[in-house]
UniProtKB/TrEMBL annotation:
Keywords: ATP-binding, Nucleotide-binding. GO terms for molecular function: ATP binding; ATP hydrolysis activity. Residues 50-365 form the ATPase AAA-type core domain. This is ATP-binding protein. The keyword ATP-binding applies. InterPro entries: ATPase_AAA_core, P-loop_NTPase. The lineage of its organism: Bacteria, Bacillati, Bacillota, Clostridia, Lachnospirales. It holds the Pfam family AAA_21.
Length: 440
């Protein structure tokens, strides 16, 4: 369960961005959408969803991009560029794209996450010096790095390395660590690499591979960040697949039928050599049955939904946090509302899954769908091109700017009570074009 993500000097977010999934205080009457996890004697609460609003180029996608970049850096364990260019988020592998382009000085870039997994509260952060924007040959350095578990600092790094209290993870330490503790600590301190995260290197090999595995598992399989969802292509593989086989998965097909398909069924055509499958439309009423690539027959919305649905299933069954850039693009609002309500349903969302997405559709600005602290905004200063982020709950409930639960959020948004909206008028451009055309 994600509780908080923070970053600074990431693209348009020059100042610190704090994206919180912890319920805001004093939200009276809003007791739904709350997840609870108990660790020892303390109970932690988290929101099961969040929706992000803002005009084009305000920085909404940069929030998701920052999460994806953080995840990528931690899993590879260093701040060197990644040679794999398949990620649609270029900044995840080409780190000179990260620093804010308006900065005159080399400001550090920071990332931090706070989450709960396997009844452990994990807080991990690091700060790096990546140089300036597009400074590709800069000698990068990790400035700080801190790991805390259940409120206790495990190690801190600030110039040097300090191993703190390991008591809280005693049962997760490597075998015979206690007998070799002094040597392991001395070796770790003397072998810090400026470009490598201590968590994924020295700490993993000399202190606790179990704890690092817990963190890696959450990042890799439960923190599902989909940057550029329009480019998502889900690759399916089937073991022992026969040549030119067609597979129809019951759950996926039933979900697609609810959403709307043009054929009898949706399945997967499997290439017997690679076992990779491509989505296809299946026609059962033709002789011997026929299957053709789905993009030739189904709507773009249907294909996008089918590619996305397994991720929703995975989140709900495994308690994952699904973060999607423009999740609702090409999807009917009624379909998305149903998915949102499933995440809000305590009888179905028993594993504490979370859904986060950005959107331009104002229909979700609704007190019957989202709490005030689940509605987030991003706006960008036209003078310095820097983004700021805030929640609807930040307005409070009292005074002229207060937001009450029974108010019309959508109406107020369009009259610019909350900000994060831009008045756009193309009329002068076309008037000028017509004027120049008449002169010619």
């Amino acid at each position: 369960m994600l509780l908080e993500f923070r970053t600074s000097n990431y693209k348009s977010f020059k100042d610190e961005l704090v994206f919180s999934l912890t319920p805001a205080p004093k939200q009276k009457g809003l007791d739904y959408s709350i997840l609870e996890e108990t660790i020892g004697k303390k109970t932690y609460k988290g929101l099961c969803s969040a929706i992000i609003y803002g005009p084009n180029a305000s920085g909404k996608t940069n929030i998701i991009g920052a999460m994806d970049t953080f995840k990528s850096i931690v899993l590879r364990g260093n701040i060197r560029n990644d040679n794999d260019k398949s990620d649609p988020n270029a900044a995840a592998g080409t780190l000179e794209l990260i620093p804010n382009s308006s900065s005159q000085n080399n400001l550090p870039v920071s990332f931090a996450v706070k989450f709960i997994s396997e009844e452990r509260l994990i807080e991990y952060s690091f700060t790096v010096d990546l140089g300036g924007f597009l400074e590709s040959h800069y000698k990068r350095r990790i400035l700080t790095e801190t790991l805390s578990v259940d409120g206790s600092v495990i190690f801190s790094r600030n110039g040097g390395l300090k191993i703190e209290d390991l008591t809280v993870i005693r049962n997760m330490l490597v075998n015979a660590f206690e007998q070799n503790a002094e040597g392991a600590i001395a070796l770790a301190v003397s072998n810090l690499n400026e470009e490598e995260l201590f968590l994924m290197n020295g700490f993993k090999t000399m202190f606790s591979s179990k704890l690092v595995s817990l963190i890696s598992e959450w990042l890799d399989n439960k923190f599902m960040v989909i940057y550029r969802a329009d480019a998502l292509h889900l690759i399916r593989k089937f073991s022992d697949a026969g040549k030119k086989s067609v597979y129809v998965e019951k759950t996926i097909n039933e979900a697609a039928a609810c959403f709307g398909i043009n054929s009898n069924a949706l399945g997967y055509i499997v290439d017997g050599e690679s076992n990779e499958a491509k989505l296809c439309s299946v026609f059962k009423n033709m002789e011997k049955g026929t299957a053709i690539p789905a993009e030739l027959f189904e709507s773009y919305g249907t294909i996008r939904y089918v590619n996305m649905f397994p991720l929703v299933v995975n989140a709900l069954l495994n308690g994952g946090t699904l973060v999607v850039d423009e999740f609702d693009a090409s999807l009917h609002p009624m379909a998305l509302m149903n998915i949102i309500n499933i995440f809000h349903n305590d009888e179905i969302n028993i594993h504490h899954a979370q859904l986060i997405f950005n959107t331009h559709n104002p229909i979700f600005l609704n007190a019957n769908l989202f709490r005030r602290d689940e509605i987030k905004f991003v706006e960008r200063d036209e003078a310095n091109h820097c983004s700021i982020h805030y929640a609807l709950s930040d307005f409070g409930t009292a005074g002229k700017k207060g937001v009450r639960n029974n108010e019309d959020y959508m109406k107020n948004y369009f009259v610019d009570r909350y900000g994060a909206i831009r008045d756009i008028d193309f009329t002068p451009i076309f008037e000028e074009l017509l004027h120049r055309g008449n002169e010619v």
